[in-house]
Fold each of these.
Amino acid sequence: MAVGRRRDVSQNRDLDLDQTLGLVRMVRTGVDSMTKVVLGISLLVVAVGCMSPPSEGPATVAAAEPTPAPAQAGTPNSGAQVDFVASGPIIVEDQVDVSAQREGIISAVFAEPGTFVKRGQLLAKMDDRQITADLEAARAKTRSTEADLKNWQAEAKVLEADYARAQKLWEAQIIPKEQLDHAKYKAESDQWDVKRVSELLANSKESERSLELELEKTQITAPFNGVVARRYIRVGQSVTKNDRLFWVTATAPLRIRVTLPERFLGRVKPGTMVGITPAEARDALHRYRARVIQVSPVVDPSSDTIEILAELSGDTSGLRPGMRADLHLPDVR
């Protein structure tokens, strides 16, 4: 019985030892796993720190530092002379729409936008066949009337000669008084016929001249030296009187019209030189020169401003009519 009890105790101790070793092995395995997890998390934190951008502390401080603002027009800056800047369009004196002076059908177009033209140069032409035929008929009538007039004038001279001869015969008492009066009235009647045909000839010539003017209206020409800016017509198009056909503009002299505050009245005069810069060019390299040619004699009461007109001089190749530009002149206070 004692032997059997010791054997049970030994077996129980063996079981307890095996369980203890198993627990130790499990704890050691868990510790190793936790260590690996902690080590992985540490490596991940280090990698993220390396990938993050550098600190923006200095840059933020630099951006927060105030930067000097550029000097504005009309604002004093350290005692230096400041220009007053006024903006306005660049214009030319000659800029018109060429309109139709009569109705008709466009038969030919000779100018396109961008074409430089001379005064009187043909831009387009209307169908002029009917007017040409009417003009030829009027000229033929004029020639016929001129021939009739010459015939009447020759006959009048014959009758005047007959009347003069009749006077001599009556004075010699060869013919009666009635024959003398007949010759007189016939000569006077012929003079009235000469005047009538002369008026017909004048009327015929006026009709001829009127048709010539109508024929000229079928020729659309440039009113001055310049450039064709727009074309509103095409061949075959029917137009009526006052319809727009072309827009022609001169290219020089270029001018700029601006308004100034009332304080410039009496200080800006004709002949004053000013600087001009295109609105899109902000540097001084694009400055042009202009001379004031006109100053408004009155002040606009609604805006307390005056209007001036300046004409550009020198090389203006970089400017075009219609552009906006800035006019610079010394400010006054």
Note: The domain at 96-126+218-249 is CATH 2.40.50.100 (OB fold (Dihydrolipoamide Acetyltransferase, E2P)).
Amino acid sequence: MYNTAHFSLANFVLLKIRKKMSKLFIAGEVFHGAGTLEELKNIKGKKAVIVTGGNSMRKSGTLNKAIAYLTEAGIETRIFEGVEEDPSSATCLKGAEIMNTFEPDWIIGLGGCSAIDAAKIMWVFYEYPDADFEAMIKPFTVPVLRNKAKFIAIPSTSGTGTETTGLAVITDREKGVKYPVVSYELTPDIAIVDGEICASMPAHVTSNTGLDALTHCVEAYVSNIDNNIADALSKGGLKIVFDNLKEVVENPDNITARQNMHDASFMAGLAFNNAWLGIVHSLSHQVGALYGIPHGASNAIFLPNVIRYNAQATERYPDLARVVGKATAEDLAQAVETLRSEVNNPSAIKDFGISKADWDKNIDYITANALADPCTGFNPRVPSLEELKAIYNACYEGIVYAEEAVVAG
């Protein structure tokens, strides 16, 4: 029982990716290390719009530092604040209105993934005011950018790697669906990966985003896109996460560990920008949109059972297991579960207060959307609707996925 529309999309995406695999897609310039926010004072330009989320960047002083560095560079700034978690296309249109009035030559996403992803889509609407968001959902349909402005990404969380990816995730609140907008046009021109910016990140955000980076490493390594560079980045990033995540959760002022996690997030983002992701993200996108579950938290719930599911079709997991001192795919799944517990993350979807009745009401809807998600096309094992549903139900309860739990539809 397969969604044929999904597989047509998956084949389209794979064809486009494989045609581009001779080129490594990465942010144009990368500055990484504690204190590299200062590089803003070397930017050449006239005007910049800074897009950010709530008040964390202002409260920590990072926003004011950024403005000061840009002023030193002779760049006039405007601020768009208040990007919500899981930003909508409506928010992106509001930001684009400010940009159309101010006419910046730099757009700067400063903050967590939501702020940077929203800034990317604002950038599209700024350059193309009549752009159709629905059309952009189809991979690689974002028009050519950089006619009016270039893009700088400055992450304050260590997880998504959006500072070096051609991806922005935007939510349709009416449909309860997250849409990954995929285009290498969205890859930033400059990435500033400064661990000092993360020092004020709360423990639960540190945990969630770190587990997101871990998931990127694992999914990029086992994807059906062969890429030696992505493989090396995935392995390296995975080791850094296992060596540093618990430390930064327990000791948030350890700037060395903070920078290590920020580098791991970048490495994982660069890996999946070139090898892409799998069904962990397909599953997570749906529960994030419908139930508001933090992305990294849901990834960490789905990842162990997806490892068990995919291990039937790929022999690559033992490579990753050996990176963290283990041997088998099951060892790796259990190592993820142990780390998840050590950084105080939930082990079941139901832990987020979702009733069984509500879950059962929506399970067919979210499963169909997960199968149709573009990330599914890069998974090493081709899933059926029934298999994804079985993984969902196991993860709702927080139990180990078993093949025999699959019920034919």
Note: Residues 1-9 have pLDDT under 50 and may be disordered.
